[in-house]
């Protein structure tokens, strides 16, 4: 779920990668693991999204020297924009196997909920539609059983603290997104009071006081994610608290109905161009989004080309920190027979080399923010330097002059990483909630009616 070039590049090369029988022995061809291989019971099976097969291939190539005798099979989920029907069928097959005690050993999950560059729709149809509920059935292995201590110590401090505070963890983050704003220096004085707020609700109240009402429209790109951004609990359900639920919906409604700047939601390059134009002419006082799809680094380079500094400011959650939205993660089948191999695989995937996250090699973070210490600084500095070495005609927005982003701007991203105090993996409930609330945003249902539907369809199952 990175960008349009990445999607097309992965699709074009997938056939070449899948032909490599040493790395992949069945990717894309099997409805589920082991359907046509007599040695499948001995094979380590990894389920991966089709768009991420190039990264998976790189990881498996790295593992050849240390584990030349380990047979690996992959199950590739078709991308929704290419074969949504086939994807849905395969997901159902895998879920059925999992509930019956079978299925792949490892799930490398891509769960970024962003505006899709190809379909221009919000991402959904994840492998695990309700991850917490599936985990509660005992389907997944506690990651702590296969996470090497020496590997854990290489992770960023917020993730180490997150893991240590929990007895059981069923999803191991490999890459994450932060929701926040990119603020030009021309706006920083007005925005500074907002950054001082350490509570989600108070933050948005301060934004409303500091800027004209139409600036609320800037948050439209992260509208469905607001319940997760606010969340400092362990799961999506924590967003449904008695006091905060209505507040979220009212805020979303306010953003939906704000008049003024309307960034086109039709294609990523058009959105990037519109954001740059609006920031440069002052129409938009800040850009709100997530740290990849909103292309903050790209926008910052355009602003730098116009002689403007900028900073990144994360949106706070409801407990004084920042919630990281897990976009790349590993989930392990509780019935796997390959714990030893998986332990080595995790160590490999979280190595500095494998976590490399800058274009054109997205690494195991899948192009999102990496989870190893020093990874984010290396990623931002490397991507910044790489872009500046490119031919100007190859820039995403060739109509603008680009310049290198300053170190203070990069430092603002690093400071945001230090504020993380929670990691949440989005699933299909995010879009289910958004779709249930759409009539309220459109004015055809009132708040009480949509709250009733939310509790009925997304909350009551906890008491089943």
The general outline is globular
Unreliable spans are: 1-40, 460-464
The count of β-strands is: 10
Taking all Cα atoms into account, the compactness measure Rg is 22 Å
Largest sheet: 7 strands, mixed
How much of the sequence lies in strands comes to 5-15%
Helix/strand class: alpha/beta
The CATH homologous superfamily of the largest domain corresponds to Periplasmic binding protein-like II
What is the count of distinct domains?
Answer: 2
- How far do the termini sit from each other? 34 Å
Average pLDDT reading: 79
CATH architecture of the largest domain: 3-Layer(aba) Sandwich
How is this fold's topology laid out?
Elements: H1 4-18, E1 44-49, H2 53-63, E2 72-77, H3 80-99, E3 106-110, H4 131-136, H5 149-152, H6 157-164, E4 172-177, E5 179-184, H7 185-195, H8 200-210, H9 226-230, H10 245-257, H11 268-281, E6 287-290, H12 296-305, E7 310-314, E8 322-332, H13 339-349, E9 369-370, H14 375-389, H15 407-418, E10 420-424, H16 429-442, H17 447-459
Parallel strand pairs: 1-2, 1-3, 8-10
Antiparallel strand pairs: 3-8, 4-8, 4-9, 5-6, 5-7
Structure description:
The protein has 464 residues and is α/β, with parallel strands linked by helices. The chain has 17 helices and ten strands. It has two domains: 4-176 and 325-369, Periplasmic binding protein-like II (D-Maltodextrin-Binding Protein, domain 2, 3-Layer(aba) Sandwich), CATH 3.40.190.10; 178-321 and 424-463, D-Maltodextrin-Binding Protein, domain 2, CATH 3.40.190. The protein has helices at residues 4-18, 53-63, 80-99, 131-136, 149-152, 157-164, 185-195, 200-210, 226-230, 245-257, 268-281, 296-305, 339-349, 375-389, 407-418, 429-442, 447-459, and strands at residues 44-49, 72-77, 106-110, 172-177, 179-184, 287-290, 310-314, 322-332, 369-370, 420-424. Strands 1, 2, 3, 4, 8, 9 and 10 form a seven-stranded mixed sheet that branches. A three-stranded antiparallel sheet has the order 6-5-7. The longest helix has 20 residues, at 80-99. The two termini are 34 Å apart. Mean pLDDT is 79; it is low at 1-40 and 460-464.
């Amino acid at each position: 779920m990175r960008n349009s070039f990445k999607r097309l590049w992965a699709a074009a090369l997938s056939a070449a990668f899948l032909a490599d029988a040493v790395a992949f022995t069945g990717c894309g061809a099997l409805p589920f693991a082991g359907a046509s291989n007599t040695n499948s019971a001995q094979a380590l099976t990894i389920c991966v999204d089709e768009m991420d097969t190039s990264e998976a291939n790189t990881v498996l190539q790295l593992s050849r020297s240390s584990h030349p005798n380990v047979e690996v099979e992959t199950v590739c989920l078709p991308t929704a924009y290419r074969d949504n029907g086939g994807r849905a069928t395969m997901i159902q097959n895998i879920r059925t196997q999992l509930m019956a005690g079978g299925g792949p050993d490892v799930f490398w999950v891509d769960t970024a909920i962003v505006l899709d560059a190809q379909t221009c729709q919000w991402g959904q149809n994840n492998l695990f539609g309700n991850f917490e509920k599936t985990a509660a059935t005992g389907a997944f292995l506690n990651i702590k059983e296969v996470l090497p201590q020496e590997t854990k110590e290489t992770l960023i401090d917020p993730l180490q603290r997150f893991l240590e505070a929990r007895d059981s963890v069923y999803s191991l983050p490999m890459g994450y997104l932060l929701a926040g704003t990119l603020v030009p220096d021309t706006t920083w004085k007005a925005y500074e009071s907002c950054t001082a707020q350490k509570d989600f609700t108070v933050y948005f109240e301060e934004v409303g006081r500091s800027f004209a009402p139409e600036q609320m429209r800037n948050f439209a790109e992260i509208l469905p994610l607001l319940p997760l951004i606010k969340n400092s609990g362990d799961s999506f359900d924590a967003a449904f608290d008695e006091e905060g639920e209505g507040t979220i919906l009212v805020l979303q409604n306010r953003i939906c109905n704000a008049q003024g700047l309307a960034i086109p939601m039709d294609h990523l390059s058009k959105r990037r161009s519109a954001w740059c134009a609006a920031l440069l002419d002052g129409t938009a006082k800040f850009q709100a989004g997530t740290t990849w799809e909103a292309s903050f680094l790209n926008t910052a380079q355009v602003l730098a080309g116009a002689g403007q500094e900028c900073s990144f400011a994360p949106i706070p959650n409801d407990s004084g920190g920042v919630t990281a939205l897990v976009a790349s993660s590993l989930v392990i089948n509780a019935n796997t027979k390959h714990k030893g191999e998986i332990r080595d695989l995790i160590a490999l995937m979280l190595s500095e080399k494998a976590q490399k996250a800058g274009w054109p090699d997205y690494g195991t973070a899948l192009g999102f923010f990496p989870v190893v210490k020093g990874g984010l600084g290396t990623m931002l500095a490397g991507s910044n330097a790489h872009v500046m070495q490119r031919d100007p005609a190859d820039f995403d927005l060739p109509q603008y002059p680009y310049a290198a982003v300053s170190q203070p701007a990069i430092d603002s991203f690093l400071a945001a990483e230090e504020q993380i105090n929670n990691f949440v993996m989005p699933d299909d409930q995010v879009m289910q909630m958004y779709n249930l609330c759409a009539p309220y945003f459109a004015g055809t249902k009132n708040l009480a009616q949509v709250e009733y539907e939310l509790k009925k369809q997304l909350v009551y199952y906890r008491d089943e």
